[in-house]
Amino acid sequence: MIQRLCRSRFFKFATGLIAGAALLAACTQIPQLPRESAAMAATPSAPPAAAPAPAQLGTQWGEGIESKSRAIVTKRLSPDQPDEVAMLGYNEASAVRRDAGSNPERRLNLQLAQGDVEWSVIDESNRPLPLQRARRSNDMFRLAGTEGARYTLRFRNLSDRSYEVIATVDGLDVLNGKPGSLRNGGYVLRPQQTLDIEGFRKSQSEVAAFRFAAPGRAYAANTEAGDVRNIGVIGAALFELEQPEAPRRPRRDATPPQPSAFPADGAYAPPPRYRK
């Protein structure tokens, strides 16, 4: 994969993305930093008391959804210090109820960056999925998913600031399919705008929809960059930005795109390879 390293005090992001018709987004291509169950035999005096493994969901590489993009240049105000890092867990409904307890704290969204940005997970009917956690726990909020259902990550900017949003699903960056890192580039969220991330980005014009699936069908379980230990968690990091510059316009005499013999070695997430 061809990548560029931006060396300056501020991170410069050469690749930008727009999710939807009027949503401006940008990504930076920066190289990544280098990177049992126990069986118990039954005996007459100590019968086993093993509990069944908890139900679990992952996120599958779903159908293609149109999501156009374009390039812009941005600068982080604090390149090495995000304004917010947050995580959401997800699982099958009965497992979430068990983890949250009988009287959980409930929300429809999380407030990030001191309330500047509202983060929610939206179902196919455009409704936020409820988030819950045990009231006496510092653990992450969790949401209940349904196998086969599609979902969207929604970030709503309530402020007059611009933010870069880096999102991961099952430990994989939603833009390039690599292990999540704060050094990766993300989507640009302008003041008073809403960013919908509907899937893993396949190209400048398309994403692969997020769909809840059995762990064995999850994208993270069927790509070299994935790690099954990270299945069931969604991450988000925010960096405040200087006001993004205007999009770069291609030169009229620019050479048209050429066919590629290795299309997977690009800046976006490679497709999964399911085991037979």
Relevant terms:
276 residues, mainly beta, eight-stranded mixed beta sheet, seven-stranded antiparallel beta sheet, 3% helix, 33% strand, globular, disordered N terminus
Describe the structure.
The protein is an all-beta fold. It has one domain (15-29, 56-241). It is built from 1 helix and 17 strands. Strands 4, 5, 8, 9, 11, 12, 13 and 17 form an 8-stranded mixed sheet that branches. Strands 3, 6, 7, 10, 14, 15 and 16 form a 7-stranded antiparallel sheet that branches. A hairpin with a 7-residue loop joins strand 8 (131-133) and strand 9. It is globular, with a radius of gyration of 20 Å. The model is unreliable at 1-53 and 248-256 (pLDDT under 50).
* SS-derived structural category: mainly beta
The share of residues in helices is under 10%
Question: What about the largest sheet?
Answer: 8 strands, mixed
How many separate structural domains? 1
Which residue ranges are poorly predicted, with pLDDT under 50 across at least 5 consecutive positions? 1-53, 248-256
Mean pLDDT: 79
End-to-end C-alpha gap: 26 Å
Identify the overall geometry.
Answer: globular
Number of helices, where a helix is a run of at least 4 consecutive DSSP H or I residues: 1
Beta percentage is: 25-35%
- The beta-strand count equals 17
How are helices and strands ordered from N to C?
EEEEHEEEEEEEEEEEEE
CA-atom Rg in angstroms: 20 Å
Explain the layout of strands and helices.
Elements: E1 15-17, E2 25-27, E3 58-66, E4 84-92, H1 93-100, E5 105-107, E6 110-112, E7 117-122, E8 131-133, E9 141-145, E10 150-157, E11 162-169, E12 172-173, E13 187-189, E14 194-197, E15 199-203, E16 206-213, E17 233-241
Parallel strand pairs: 4-9
Antiparallel strand pairs: 1-2, 3-16, 4-17, 5-8, 6-7, 7-10, 8-9, 10-14, 10-16, 11-12, 11-13, 11-17, 15-16
